[in-house]
Known about the structure:
Blueprint: H1 2-52, H2 59-64
Amino acid sequence: MERQVNELKAKCEQTEKRAQEQRQVEEKKHAEEIQFLKRTNQQLKVHTQCYSDNVCTTTADSNSQH
């Protein structure tokens, strides 16, 4: 009986450890996704501001001036 209890405790600890590792992986993935979205958002803000100010020039425009 005591052996079974110890086996079940060990199994429970392994399960908890795997669950914790999986949570860490998911949290890291989530944080990376957040950073990607923040960078994308910042780039979109810059482009939006650039276009609204009519300051942007395309590569073709700059090439035609040379």
